[in-house]
Amino acid sequence: xxxxxxxxxxxxxxxxxxxxGGFDGIAKAGVAIVTCMxxxxxxxxxxxxxxxxxxxxxxxxxxxxxxxxxxxxxAVHLLNVDRVxxxxxxxxxxxxxxxxxxxxxxxxxxxQDASWQPLHVITDQVAELHHxxxxxxxxxxxxxxxQVGGFIYDVDTGxxxxxx
Length: 164
Ligand SMILES: [Zn+2]
Description:
Elements: H1 5-16, E1 31-36, E2 54-59, H2 66-78, E3 83-87, H3 93-96, H4 99-110, H5 125-137, E4 147-153, E5 160-162
Parallel strand pairs: 1-2, 1-3, 3-4
Antiparallel strand pairs: 4-5
The structure holds zinc ion.
């Protein structure tokens, strides 16, 4: 206890001015965003959205993982989503290191062997993005009426570039 005091204090301030209560949890703007865990990305604000507008799925690299696909099936059928945007980004650790390099960095930081830990590094970010877009478009439970876009977010300019 005590290690989270700063966060809990901030939460008290947040809750004192809370105005999202009673909301039903659908994506009001009909958008789902799949993006990286990178702290340089503010997924809602980069596309002009606010809390309540979108479903946000994050993981290293912004990949369409099996869990992301599960979430998207729920999102399009139960949560009002009709557009899916997939947003990996420039200077992403999992796209700019080899699996061996990244494992070596983790091993060094951890002070123990991390060579057994899969990190799912990618070597061709745009090709993987295309693959991920196709995974969503071709999923049997995601209708063709759902718009799926693949973009690269530039962490140095704040700009999105549509690839697919
Ligand atoms: Zn990243």
